[in-house]
Amino acid sequence: MTSITVSDLTNLTVAQIRDGHRAGDFSAVDVAEAFVAAVDAADALNAFIVKTPEHALAAAKQADADRAAGSLKPLSGVPIGMKDLFATKGVQTTAASHMLEGFVPQYESSVSQRLWDAGAGMLGKLNLDQFAMGSSNETSYFGNVISPWRREGGDNAALAPGGSSGGSSSAIAARLCPAATGTDTGGSIRQPAAFTGISGIKPTYGRCSRWGIVAFASSLDQAGPMARDVRDCAIMLEAMAGFDPKDATSLDLPVPQWEAGLNADMRGKRVGVPREYRVDGIDADIARVWDEGIRWMKDAGAEIVDISLPHTKYALPTYYIIAPAEASSNLARYDGVRYGLRDLPEGAGLQDMYAATRAAGFGPEVKRRIMIGTYVLSAGFYDAYYTQAQKVRTLIARDFEAAWAHCDVILTPTAPSAAFALGDKSADPLAMYLNDVFAVPASLAGLPAMSVPGGLDRDGLPLGLQIIGKAFDEQGVLNAGLAIEQRSGFAARPDKWW
Amino acid sequence: MSVDSATVTKIAKLARIAVSDAEVEALVPELNNILGWVEQLGEVDVSGVEPMTAVIPNHLRLRDDVIDADPLTGGGVRDAVLANAPAAQHGFFGVPKVIE
């Protein structure tokens, strides 16, 4: 259709692409070519590690053929970005590490396979923090991802797109793809979504198969979609979720029709506001957007309930024992023998090869976490650190259980600040960890949680609101997110400078 | 509890990561900073609390006890298994000599 320009196409949401393609308003190949061109013109953002235009175009041709044959699939004609943590058959998968540079999987991850089966195409593999360890995308071996956002007022400092799914958030905010996969271990979908003014949902632990996702902390890792609005998140999640016998913790439950179930009417719902999240010295803009979110929930008909999650302050230290402990175990597989990098110094034996390979293949943050994990699991310290953390984790999950007696969903800020400049926090690991203070509790409890845009801060940067739901109640989370989305009127987008 | 350079050297050895003396010196305060912060967990009363083992109630499944229940993770895929090996010879992973 001649009246639709290339920039129009890249502004479309997943639902608009799906429906417009179905209606014959444009071809899937036109859509794919528009996004491929946008990706090619955005190298300054460094959002992609590998571009795969041929994959996106092949899926688009198939989508056009399927439309002609009357056999359209749920995501026919929709090109997406794939976080480079998902194994993709025949396409380099690195986890943004030197260790896996050049690694070409011989199999497809379950989540990506589901998306291809649903008709989606892949524009490329998205950059991330190395092994998903980071909150700013500054730990990637392949360079920092830059946020398309800039502060108002002439300050052109390069801003963090959040992490670890920072390639995903940057690419969606810059209209390089309408949606992307993310993974969330302690906020890695929600915090980058908040930093870039988009939406993202981490479903209940076990909804999306972990099979074929490079493992970080297996009791926390969970895949989920990132997109520009709540409906698109619902559409994507329906395609990504589902039982997988190859993942021992996969939930053997039917996948609800989340998109069809979307309903922003919050009458009869109780929205919990946890007093422990209103920390001393909370940023004024964060507090203001949170208060607005509370008002929007009331406007949608919800009852606001003051709740207490007493162990909140212990969530982050708990996370920074459990996640490194699991990482130190999971990353033991990188030994220079079976796949990935091998560094074999002259005359070295097997043990020296392991140590040299891992020294050369892992970045500083990954090494730091492996060493913390090794320490807290070592003889003599295991009970004091690891067992204690798993007990506190039980208490954190109980906090939520108790809260569900009083509310249906919980509303909080997603992150304690807007996006910071690259380099601002990278010298201080603890300051970086504190970014996930609001995101980590839901991860530790395995609960579904999403971030939706709530407004802008004093510098014109996006701020996110987080909705946490009961286990298996992604619908309740999405509906509350939709109620906010309909009232926030969030339409800000970064000016194109790249 | 805090770590000194001897402990960091031992942790690095356990983790099979080669570290230089300079790296050890840099890691000592970094790790102590993080460990000092996580130690606040010690103040939580956990008496009678079981450590978490499964975040979402789930039951462990057994797959069918048959060969190649899932062809992808079953046998007969040697070449695919070896495809990314840094050194594969004669259908095996190659490693430096381990027996003199």
Structural description of this entry:
The complex is a heterodimer of chains A (498) and B (100). Chain A contains 16 helices and 11 strands. Chain A starts with 5 loop residues before the first helix and ends in a 10-residue tail after the last helix. Chain A has helices spanning 6-10, 14-23, 28-40, 53-69, 110-117, 166-173, 190-196, 230-240, 284-299, 315-330, 350-361, 364-376, 382-403, 429-433, 440-444, 474-488, and strands at 48-51, 79-83, 121-126, 179-184, 199-202, 222-227, 270-274, 303-307, 409-413, 449-456, 462-469. Chain A has 498 residues and is an alpha/beta fold. Chain A is globular. Chain B has 100 residues and is mainly α. Chain B has a domain at 5-41: Histone, subunit A, CATH 1.10.20. Helices cover 33% and strands 4% of the residues of chain B. Chain B contains 3 helices and 2 strands. Chain B has a two-stranded antiparallel ribbon with strand order 1-2. Chains A and B meet through α10, α11, α12 and α13 of A and α1 and α2 of B.
Structural key phrases:
heterodimer; A: alpha/beta; Amidase signature (AS) enzymes; 8-stranded mixed beta sheet; 3-stranded mixed beta sheet; 12% strand; B: mainly alpha; Histone, subunit A; 3 helices; 2 strands; flat
What's the SSE blueprint?
The complex is a heterodimer of chains A (about 500) and B (about 100).
Chain A: H1 6-10, H2 14-23, H3 28-40, E1 48-51, H4 53-69, E2 79-83, H5 110-117, E3 121-126, H6 166-173, E4 179-184, H7 190-196, E5 199-202, E6 222-227, H8 230-240, E7 270-274, H9 284-299, E8 303-307, H10 315-330, H11 350-361, H12 364-376, H13 382-403, E9 409-413, H14 429-433, H15 440-444, E10 449-456, E11 462-469, H16 474-488
Parallel strand pairs in A: 2-3, 7-8, 7-9
Antiparallel strand pairs in A: 1-3, 4-6, 5-6, 5-10, 9-11, 10-11
Helix pairs in contact in A: 3-4, 6-7, 8-16, 9-16, 10-12, 10-13
Chain B: H1 5-14, H2 21-38, H3 78-82, E1 88-89, E2 92-93
Antiparallel strand pairs in B: 1-2
